[in-house]
Amino acid sequence: MNTIVSIDASSAERLEVVRSADRLAAIEADWMHLWHRTDGLIFQSHAWISAWWSTVADRDQRALRIGLVWNGDRLVAVVPLTIGKRKGLRFLEWAASSYTDYGDILVAPECSLSALQDVWAQICDAGGFDIAFLNHLLPGAAVRKIFTPDTSGGIRLRPNHREEVSYRVAGQWQSGAAWFAEQSKKTRQNYRRGVKTLEEAGKIKFRLLAPDEPLQPVLDRLSALKRRWLVERKRESQLFEEGAPVLAALVDALARAGVLRIFVLECDGAMVSVSINFVQHHTMMAFVTTFDPDFSQASPGMILMMDYIQWSIDHGLGTVDFLCGAESFKHKFATQGVVLQSVIGARTAQGSIASLADRMRQRVRHVRGRGPVPTS
């Protein structure tokens, strides 16, 4: 059931908390209008979140909690949250959190701060969760304005020790070749050596997939390669499970938004490396990248990455963003790193105990010299 509450008759602002798939579908046009108007990232788009919700494997163990603020008949804010279960606890978190590199809200300039704080309070008062945990917060995330010290309602959120770094390639280069020339001698040699190794196996080609090319064969190939990589490292991911629909749904959301860019490196027509990227805010963002381990001696993943960095610069993009993750290759090529913070707050006694235990573990790690200074 959705809840609508009048805040102030003079402002005509009212609140709603979306809990059903039917209501989520019904607000698509309003949400997408706000997304375009605020120049939001794809992670906060209706297309992205509905793609995830319609394909997530454990939807029966989750609950939508998407806060809305309306001004008259115009949607002016979206707070996209869900409740999920992990380790015996119920978490209030970002919708599609597993696939959202930058978590945030959408808010129009005319939306009042009191309305944002009230919709947060309404979500918290409705309950159904033990801990609120919002991560992947950029320094300028709009959601930060809700969690100010003077907030009168809802759970108080404090900084959490969990942080990630978004590594990026940013600078002023006249061309991709100029960027390549700035790399170390060893890096340039490794690139050329890898290209030569691939050429010994067949004709190689770097290319951007055309908009009208079928996507499913590429996604099938990428998923198969990614599963091999995961098995070798004894890891799992629902995103790449055979027959799982979520990857195709998210990529379709990127395609329909007009931001999708898929780069491939081929050897005799076979894809030896694939990178699913998208372009927003004058930035090339790398969502998923993988390579064929049978060609690992040539480092095809590195070759493809260096190729699409050069392509991005040649096409006037100011930044290549590797998004979340601390893989060594990202640090190697990055010229800057942005720290993504997280906030946490407990609603129940069980949540408070779990949060306290987590803080104590961090203090022990700090004492032993194996972790950062705890901030909470």
* Fraction of residues in β-strands: 25-35%
Number of individual domains: 2
Q: Tell me, what is the CATH class of the largest domain?
A: Alpha Beta
SS-based class: alpha+beta
The pLDDT mean sits at 91
Distance between the termini: 36 Å
Q: Secondary-structure element sequence?
A: EEHHHEEEEHEEHHEHHEEEHEHEH
CATH superfamily of the largest domain: Gcn5-related N-acetyltransferase (GNAT)
Number of helices: 11
Which stretches are poorly predicted, pLDDT < 50 over at least 5 residues?
6-10
* CATH fold topology of the largest domain: Aminopeptidase
Tell me the major beta sheet: 14 strands, mixed
Helix content: 25-40%
Shape: globular
CATH architecture of the largest domain: 3-Layer(aba) Sandwich
Report the count of strand segments. Answer: 14
Rg to the nearest angstrom? Answer: 22 Å
Word description of this protein:
The chain has helices at residues 21-26, 28-37, 46-55, 113-126, 176-182, 185-201, 216-232, 246-256, 300-314, 328-333, 349-367; strands spanning 3-8, 13-18, 63-71, 74-86, 89-94, 106-107, 131-137, 158-170, 204-208, 260-267, 270-280, 283-291, 319-321, 336-346. Strand 1 (3-8) and strand 2 form a beta hairpin. Helix 6 crosses helix 9 (300-314). It has eleven helices and 14 strands. 35% of the residues lie in helices and 29% in strands. Strands 1, 2, 3, 4, 5, 6, 7, 8, 9, 10, 11, 12, 13 and 14 form a 14-stranded mixed beta sheet that branches. It has two domains: 13-164 and 340-356, Aminopeptidase; 172-317, Aminopeptidase, CATH 3.40.630.30. The protein is α+β, with helices and mostly antiparallel strands. This is GNAT family N-acetyltransferase. It holds the Pfam family Acetyltransf_6. Residues 185-330 form the BioF2-like acetyltransferase domain.
